[in-house]
Task: structure prediction
Amino acid sequence: MTPFTTIDSPAAWLDEENIDTDAIYPARFLLLMDRDGLGPYLFRDRRFTGQELRNDRFILDREPFNTAQVLIAGAGFGCGSSREQAVWALTGFGIRCVIAPDFGEIFAGNALKNGLLTIRLAPDVVRQLGESALKGSLFRVDLDARSVMMDGAHVAAIDIPDHHRQALLNGWDEADIMLREDGAAIADFELRHRAAQPWLFAKGE
Result:
């Protein structure tokens, strides 16, 4: 998993509530199971008519928002089905952080496991940030300092449990965390298991 570094970026604002995972990543693409390369399918039905781009009407297809690493949205972002591809599509497009009043519970969990930072802020703060984003404000998301800055000024703190913060900063996935927290116990079990049932580990002649 890519470590989360400080982001300096414009932000794209989707002024809409309850944007579900089917809008983020349409169901007909669910057979694509590789987590890499899903960026082109992000908000596919909002961005394309067939294979043709919708004349740059969608915000993520307009400069400078087509390079945004920060997405600002209304409450309920990522509600709906549990498809992890919704997160893969966001990160594949280049989005590393989503700011919203709240998120679909499963989406938020999937985001954490895939290096996508979700930041919950009050609705009025989210709207203020979104309106400023549309006017061209630049954002800095500094996870190490737990700070969201806009045009050089601190605007919000990042409220995140420290173990989740460390996982994102270091790029640790679930396996990495398990080995760090339970590695010694796992190694001890393997030694005892080999001693008790050595025939399971015998190599063929």
